[in-house]
Write a structure and sequence with these properties.
heteropentamer, A alpha/beta, B alpha+beta, C alpha/beta, D alpha/beta, E alpha/beta, D: alpha/beta, Rossmann fold, FAD/NAD(P)-binding domain, 5 domains, five-stranded parallel beta sheet, 34 strands, 27% helix, E: alpha/beta, four-stranded parallel beta sheet, 48% helix, 15% strand
Chain lengths: 267, 336, 278, 667, 150
């Protein structure tokens, strides 16, 4: 990844950006996000197939934004997140430089949003392969089995909200769970309350989820909560033929409509 | 009480376990279907794991449950009444196979819940808890008990501490009266000590907690906090998996005219934890909250609660989605 | 009473005063006489008030410990609990836990002049100590109260202000922000710091108690310093968010100090040693 | 301090026949916070209302639940009664015991229990009601009419005659629109210009109307009563005050070969021109695209000949800022031209023309002075074929709708032709004859029966040229789809009416919706045909869909009344049941995070942006803000808002949540 | 389960279904009294969380009803609602929450008879399905879970 380091160093040296958000290896060897502000330290940046965290979550973080213009190492999900964030007015295209990473791990030349859009449009936007099998398996269960499965999984939830915090699209200053008039979601973590929380989260991400799987990855107790949003991503495509994060001007599925939207259950 | 050491054979361990589960709630670690280590009540002995490094969640919930009902109430038109929790219904629990770090955490929790005013819910649960600990014969890069004054075979917090021997048998250190009671109830299973070597893992010391504590007293304004918390995403995972984190929330939940007031886990990492109704937030950004977490455990608690708020289990680091490695940060802190 | 430290006393609302459209004062009476007899508190302490079903909210006891048999609290409708409280009527039940926290050192102040300076909704936390010292009037020398609010209608305790004003042994100065006056307003017009500067009370043998919004504190402190007040002779209260009230829930600490245990009353001398977490 | 009063109405026996009203009032009276509960035979009667008013005072009620009929029936009655009793009217709710309970269920326990449930739910709701004040929106009493065709003219005159100011903006150099191009009008065959031009003059002279021709709407901001409009007055290269309209410049202009738009390209005009002799204003403009001076830098003949020195070559476009209270959109329509039809020769046959071109041929002021002559050779056509539904009702061409006016004008055209060419034969191919309208069908019958126009029911498959003649091939479906071939001298296509080019752009500027054909969309197809979704913007004429003159004029008058009604009071008063975005103390300002997805769900463009800035003007945060003047209170944004930062007065989150809980739980 | 009386909550819009239900009343068409109506300005206002809350508070069935497409008083609220329900239904199906317990319908102000049919059909169906035991169990179990936790 010499190119990446070189480019990051360049950007910092000529002050195009004030911070480069990328990946580094921690002392235990775990890949983690890095925030490089000093061009001399650009060498810490790495990229390999273990770099799977969606870094776009930091683009809306106050302390990171305070640096100034940001460059970000961006795989496809990050790029799509960026598109969503711009379209939802959480980010200005001018305030970032995208260090695109291709599917085979090479630095892309993403000069502007249009080029990024072109790249995204060429890519496979459906849910990642590794999740498809599990989704398909779950979809085969009968309703009672599904309900049992999710009850069991969600009973583990401790409401640490790592799923929310890790998600670039969950950028609200105040989450619905923090609303107490009325108390939409019970504060305590029990199966029922957890289920309400995860339904709420999935619905809020319907048509906005870019299938990075970050929520499931972040979950400390291993709940596959990403499957909920990914199922809806599939359904959004089935019904409305769109994927989230393909343009900086898109409106999300639930904030738009077509008069001839098809359904079969409303009598 | 004078502590004694006995031997318990591999096969007797199963007998002891079965004897305990026959008349008590035994909370023991198992490997769940998704490979997570979790504690369950009275799993079959075959399921119980002896080879885990750390469970995903700590076992603090036996004394500080995710949700603790504080009382029930009824709101009628004219009268509101409160019904107390029947604390006698709190079950006797034997915690089985928990590692020394987790067991030491009960002392830490006690220092929070019982300093000044005693918290009866916690105390009662702790009173009804017997701990059969298990020394660590395995560890990983996240473990740092030796840096916080503990060790893989610390006896703190255990009533009985089992330590694996090379031949598969265990040494049992009987440490308290509670432990003694258990031993007495199954006296035939315990034998005299052999000279077989114990298998105890080695955990390298990474920092000196005394030095960290002394450094922290003047480190409130240090740029370290901002620099090292940039990647923190502000979830509550570290606090919720932590065996000593005791922050909680108090809430009401009503159905019709009946309801309950409960306390549930909370985390100082959440943005709204300290938010005033006015909109002012004393700990507005993540760096301030990260600082609070470390300060609380390594500076405020030693001073106010006479205990260290960390047992070095490493869960917060292994469970962190963004590798906020606490040992690494403390190591750095002792050198600032 | 059980050992359950979370269980509130049940109190009955004996009286309600609508101070402003948003602010209410409740007089609360213990439902259980034994509780009433055992209950003691001191000026400056606070409690957790609750509506069963809505949760708890923290505010100080606004009545004086010299007045027995009841406690009073004043609150502004702001969140879930205070909104629910505001919906209650006389005879309804309120939960109360407390008293918690430290107290104003009124004994130490004996023989001194007292200067109370409050802004807006910060008079209630001070009302307790004001009445406490007024009720023991002969133990103190001059008592001066400077109270300001944004507008006339934002002034709380209007009846008591009248009473204080009429008493010869208390000096009361009320002020409203410019533009907040009504045609028949007879008090001062101007911000508290400026009014205080004009008043120029002596700092000689005087203790100042200062409560108000941060911006008021910020501009009043220099005035007090100019008047010669020592940090140790200036008191204020901190109001961090809290849940338990007894140093366990982990919310209210300012550095190593718990506002709920070591506060809410702090001298300025102490405040200066605290990290900025309030 | 909630003190709720509940008033259970018997509605004679309508409710009490199946609901045990006594038990209901009793049970409800025992609920927490219910300070007063009673029953009465007719709550809506005077004594019933007095009962409520007295109870409000006596029991210091903070909320009232009238348990009677549907709120759709008597909510206003009881809210008024509460107001008279000294309670804010929005602290009154109704529990629908009649339509939703007593009338639809049998007399039994369950029905009475349901009545109790319904009331309890409303009691829980009303506790959370807020005392609301009606919203007042100031109104600027100046309207703007966009488009100066007959619809715009009518609307402008009607509004102006009500005493209100009107600004009329017309894109072309003259008002008059398509109607000024028409020869005669159906079904009376009176001369179009004769009836139109007096109206055009009236517009120009009306003291309440300001006319901007050769001008376009640049931008529209604001909301009902308070639009801020920018108008671009395109440079006419003329000092209009100095110009006397003598016309010398237009006759002397050396550039004379420009296809005349007014004549639908069938005549020529100079570069400095007046679109047509009766134009209003009757002042020329210079067509910069064709003017020799503007192209080559020299000529200036007009300047030289102008007796009043009125020519201004360096005149810039002018931007006018206007404050407008209401807008009437009357931008009219366009038609498909012959080149849209491959089967009819893509417009390459000169003698295949469209309806508007025929109008010009038939017009006394047209290029042939009213003689019907073939464009190709100036001969009088002996055989003429009219093809109705050219494009219309043809989903394959993307136009599924009926253009509505073609049947009538085709009959008129055939009739006009027969009147002018007595020996000629007129054939009309049609799909159906749609002649609904006063004296319309009679008119068509006259064409067939008195003027012997040959109506053939069937479609024309192709038109091609052979030996200077046009061969029209079609079928006659009334004769069993027999092929028909007519050798014609001229073919007139009744082409589909379509939206004006630029309609979409204008709709976007105005924030009004438009349909898939780019016609402006009405707010409701039946009940609000004149309104748009954007309050304060109304539609008139064919910009909504193709219309004939009487329809356009009626709608224009309708729109004018809407404007006049809006202007009839000093401000606009609205029910305050609108959405709002919360505000908190700095540094948060609002829990709104500014994603603005709510903007795309709002059908009324009621969601605006509000910036919070530092003292030196740096934006700290941008959050949503509801324009109370525009919000209609549907609440779609409320349900969409992820952070629950938007709420709706009257149906707040807290209220609806409390209703669900109250309905399902025992209290 | 013969004496099982299902609790059904109806979330309806003010302009079509509420008015339609009024018409049912005016026409004196009888229907099951198990259904209780909550009025909303528009189906677009109906938060999906309210449906979950209804189940959590013990509802056995739910009706959600508003204006037919193109008839919305606010032009598009029901279209937005439709998309929301499509997504909601898919999610519920994926999680095994019983969508047979929710009736979605369009009932206009003129369809008083249809409202009665919708109600009766729903109540009959819920009667056959019985109480929503599995959801209630989850809610109740969640309470027990906490008590036992230690």
């Amino acid at each position: 990844m010499d190119n990446l380091v070189k480019r990051a160093k360049e950007l910092l040296e000529n002050k195009t950006v004030q911070v480069v958000i990328g990946y580094e290896a921690g002392p235990t060897g775990v890949i983690r996000p890095a925030f490089i502000t000093d061009p001399e330290k650009a060498g810490k940046l790495i990229y390999n197939d273990k770099c799977d965290q969606n870094l776009a979550v930091y683009l809306t973080k106050k302390e990171v934004k305070n640096f100034g213009k940001m460059a970000i190492v961006a795989t496809l999900p990050v790029m799509r997140s960026i598109m969503m964030l711009i379209s939802e007015q959480q980010l200005f295209a001018e305030s970032i430089v995208v260090l695109g990473i291709s599917a085979d791990g090479n630095l892309l030349d993403i000069a502007d949003i249009n080029i990024m859009q072109g790249y995204i449009e060429k890519s496979d936007l459906s849910n990642p392969e590794k999740y498809k099998a599990l989704l398909a398996e779950l979809n085969k269960l009968n309703p009672e089995e599904k309900f049992a499965y999710w009850q069991k999984e969600l009973s583990k939830c401790i409401k640490c909200y790592a799923c929310r915090q890790a998600c670039p699209m969950c950028y609200c200053t105040r989450c619905t769970v923090e609303v107490n008039q009325p108390q939409w979601i019970p504060v305590q973590a029990n199966t029922h309350g957890n289920m309400e929380w995860h339904i709420l989260r999935a619905m809020h991400l319907a048509g906005r989820c870019i299938s990075c799987g970050e929520c499931g990855r972040a979950c400390p107790v291993g709940i596959p909560c990403h499957l909920l949003t990914m199922q809806l991503t599939d359904q959004v495509y089935t019904y409305f033929k769109v994927y989230a994060g393909t343009s900086d001007k898109m409106n999300s599925v639930l904030s738009t409509f077509e008069p001839n939207d098809k359904e079969s259950f409303i009598i | 009480m004078e502590t004694t050491r006995k031997l318990i054979r591999k096969q007797s361990v199963e007998k002891l376990y079965n004897a305990l589960t026959s008349n008590r709630q035994v909370y023991a670690p198992v490997v769940a279907a998704d490979k997570q280590i979790e504690y369950r009540y009275n799993p079959g002995f075959a399921e119980v794991t002896f080879g885990h490094i750390r469970s995903t969640l700590s076992v603090k919930n036996v004394v500080f449950p995710k949700v603790e009902n504080l009382f029930f109430y009824t709101n009628a038109r004219s009268e509101s009444t409160i019904t107390d929790i029947d604390m006698s219904r709190i079950p006797e629990v034997v915690l089985w196979g928990a590692h020394p770090c987790d067991n030491a955490a009960f002392d830490t929790l006690r220092s929070i819940f019982c300093w000044d005013i005693k918290d009866e819910f916690f105390s009662k649960r702790l009173e009804k808890l017997a701990v059969i600990g298990l020394s660590c014969h395995l560890s990983d890069e996240y473990c740092f008990c030796t840096s916080v004054g503990l060790s893989p075979d610390s006896k703190k917090g255990s009533d009985i501490l089992l330590s694996l021997l090379k031949n598969g048998d265990y040494h049992a250190d009987i440490l308290t009266e509670k432990g003694n009671e258990i031993v007495k109830s199954a006296a035939d299973l315990f034998e005299t000590v052999s000279d077989e070597k114990e298998v105890i893992t080695e955990v390298k010391q990474k920092f000196s907690h005394e030095q960290v504590t002394s450094k922290l007293s003047a480190a409130f304004e240090h740029p370290f906090w901002v620099e090292n918390s940039l990647r923190c995403i502000g979830c509550g995972a570290c606090a919720y998996v932590c065996p000593t984190c005791a922050c909680f929330d108090i809430q009401d939940e009503t159905r019709g005219k009946n309801g309950k007031r409960y306390r549930s886990w909370d985390s100082c990492g959440f943005g709204l934890f300290t938010l005033h109704t006015s909109g002012h937030n004393p700990r507005e950004v993540q760096s301030q909250r990260w600082r609070q977490r470390i300060m609380h455990k390594f500076s405020y608690m030693p001073e106010r609660n006479e205990s260290l708020g960390c047992v070095g289990c490493g869960r917060c680091s292994s469970g962190c989605p963004v590798d906020m490695n606490i040992a690494e940060q403390l190591e750095a802190l002792q050198n600032i | 009473m059980s050992d359950n430290i979370y269980k509130p006393y049940l109190m009955e609302i004996e009286n309600i005063v609508e101070e402003t459209p948003d602010v209410r004062t409740f007089r609360l009476k213990f439902k259980n006489n034994e509780d009433a007899e055992k209950f003691v508190f001191k000026a400056g302490q606070f409690g957790e008030y609750s509506v069963l079903g809505e949760g708890e909210s923290t505010f100080c006891v606004a009545s004086s410990p010299t007045r027995k048999g009841y406690i009073e609290c004043t609150f502004r409708k702001a969140g879930r609990v205070t909104n629910a409280l505001a919906n209650l009527e006389i005879g309804d039940t309120v939960g109360f836990r407390g008293p918690y926290g430290n107290t104003f050192p009124v004994e130490q102040w004996e023989g001194k002049n007292l200067l109370y300076i409050a802004g807006g909704i910060a008079l209630p936390p001070m009302r307790c100590v004001i009445w406490n010292t007024i009720d023991l009037r002969d133990k103190y020398r001059d008592i001066t109260i400077v109270y300001g609010a944004r507008t006339v209608s934002d002034l709380v305790y209007k009846n008591e202000l009248k009473e204080w004003e009429d008493r010869p042994d208390i000096k009361l100065i009320t002020t409203v922000d410019p533009g907040g006056q009504t045609p028949d307003w007879k008090g001062e017009i101007g911000f508290v710091p400026l009014v205080l500067e004009k008043l120029a009370p002596s700092s000689e043998n005087t203790v100042a108690v200062l409560c108000g919004p941060p911006v008021m504190i910020k501009f009043t402190m220099p005035v007090l310093k100019k008047l010669g007040f020592q940090d140790k002779d200036i008191y204020t209260t901190l109001e961090n968010r809290m849940k338990c009230g007894f140093g366990k829930c982990g919310r209210c600490n300012v550095g190593k100090l718990f506002v709920c245990k070591d506060g809410p009353v702090f001298s300025y001398e102490e405040i200066l040693t605290l990290p900025e977490e309030y | 301090m909630a003190r709720i009063g509940v008033f259970v109405c018997h509605c004679g026996e309508n409710i009490s026949a199946t609901v045990d009203c006594g038990k209901v009032a009793d049970t409800i009276g025992k609920l927490k916070h219910v300070a007063y509960s009673t029953e009465y035979k007719y709550m809506c009667s005077d004594p019933g209302q007095t009962l409520i008013k007295d109870a409000i005072r006596e029991h210091k009620l903070t909320g009232v639940v009238v348990s009677a009929c549907s709120p759709r029936m008597h909510e206003p009655t009881f809210r008024k009664a509460c107001a008279e009793g000294g309670l804010n009217p929005f602290l009154c709710e109704m529990a629908n015991l009649r339509e939703h309970c007593s009338w639809v269920h049998e007399k039994n326990e369950l029905t009475t229990e349901k009545a109790i449930d319904i009331i309890r739910t409303q009691v829980e709701k009303v506790k959370l009601n807020s005392a609301l004040q009606p919203i007042r929106v100031p109104v600027t009493k100046t309207s703007m009419v966009i488009g100066g065709g007959i619809a715009g003219i009518q609307a402008a005159l009607d509004i102006a005659n009500c005493g209100h100011k009107v600004v009329m903006v017309e894109r072309s150099p003259s008002i008059g629109g398509h109607m000024s191009q028409l020869s005669e009008t159906f079904p009376t065959l009176d001369c179009s210009q004769c009836i139109l031009t007096p109206r055009m003059v009236e517009v120009a002279q009306h003291p309440n109307i300001t006319l901007y021709t050769y001008a376009e709407v640049e931008s529209v901001e604001g909301f009902i009563g308070n639009f801020k409009v920018k108008i671009r007055k395109k440079a006419k290269s003329l000092d209009e005050k100095a110009c006397t309209g003598c016309g010398l410049c237009t006759t002397k202009c050396p550039q004379k070969k420009i296809p005349n738009e007014f004549e639908q390209g069938m005549g020529m005009r100079p570069a400095i021109y007046v679109p047509f002799p009766q134009a209003v204003p009757n002042r020329p403009v210079i067509d910069k695209e064709h003017c020799t001076y503007y192209i080559k830098g020299k000529c200036k003949v007009c300047e030289i000949v102008c007796p009043t020195k009125a020519i201004r070559f360096d005149q810039p476009d002018e931007i006018l800022d206007l404050e407008i209270g209401a807008i009437v959109v009357s931008t009219g329509f366009d038609i498909k031209h012959a080149d849209f039809f491959p089967e009819y020769g893509y417009g390459k046959y000169k003698d295949v023309i469209d309806g508007l071109q025929f109008e010009r041929l038939a017009s006394a002021s047209g290029p042939t002075a009213g003689a019907i002559l073939r464009p190709s050779d100036g001969q009088v056509p002996k055989n003429i074929v009219f093809i109705a539904c050219a494009g219309s009702r043809d989903p394959a061409k993307g136009i599924a709708y009926c253009s509505k006016i073609c049947c009538m004008y085709t009959a008129k055209h055939a009739m006009l032709y027969k009147h002018k060419v007595h020996e000629g034969n007129a054939h009309v191919f049609y799909m159906d004859i749609r002649s609904g309208g006063k004296n319309y069908d009679e008119f068509v019958r006259r064409a067939i029966e008195e003027d012997y126009v040959n109506y053939i029911r069937g479609r024309v498959s192709t038109v091609y040229e052979r030996d200077g003649k046009l061969i029209v091939k079609g079928v006659d479906t009334l004769l069993g789809a027999q092929p028909v071939e007519i050798v014609a001298d001229m073919v007139v296509l009744a082409t589909a009416g379509v939206a004006n080019p630029g309609a979409e752009e204008l709709a976007q500027k105005l924030h009004v919706s438009y349909d898939s054909h780019k016609f402006f969309a009405e707010a409701h197809p039946k009940l609000k045909p004149v309104e748009t979704n954007t309050a304060g913007i109304f539609l008139a004429g064919a910009c909504q869909n193709p219309k004939d003159i009487p329809d356009s004029v009626s709608q224009a008058s309708g729109a004018a009344v809407k404007v006049a009604a809006l202007f009839s009071q000093n401000g606009l008063t609205r029910e305050p049941l609108v959405a709002f975005v919360n505000r908190t103390a700095p540094p948060m300002y609002s829990t709104c995070v500014g994603c603005f997805l709510c903007q795309s769900v709002c059908p009324y463009q009621a969601i605006e942006r509000e910036d919070f800035k530092t003292r030196d003007g740096k934006i700290i945060k941008t959050v949503a803000k509801i324009n109370e003047g525009l919000c209609q209170g549907c609440g779609t944004c409320v349900a969409l808002c992820r952070s629950k930062s938007i709420d709706l007065y009257g149906y707040s989150n807290n209220q609806v949540y409390a209703e669900v809980v109250a309905l399902l739980n025992e209290f | 389960m013969s004496d099982f009386e299902p609790k059904v909550v109806a979330f309806v819009c003010n302009w079509c279904t509420y008015a339609g239900a009024d018409l049912t009343g005016t026409s004196r068409i009888k229907y099951a009294s198990n259904v209780k109506i909550i009025r909303f300005p528009c189906t677009g206002r109906i938060d999906f969380m309210l449906l979950l809350k209804a189940f959590a508070n013990g509802a056995d069935g739910i009706i959600v009803s508003g204006c037919h497409p193109n008839d919305c008083h606010y032009t598009s609220g029901n279209f937005h609602a439709k998309r929301r329900w499509i997504m909601f239904k898919e999610l519920m199906d994926f999680m095994g929450i019983d969508m047979n317990r929710i009736t979605f319908s369009w009932v206009s102000a003129a369809e008083g008879a249809k409202w009665a049919d919708v109600v009766n059909a729903t109540v009959t169906r819920i009667r056959e399905l019985g109480p929503y035991v599995s959801y209630k169990e989850m809610v109740d179990k969640s309470v027990e879970e906490e008590v036992k936790n230690g």
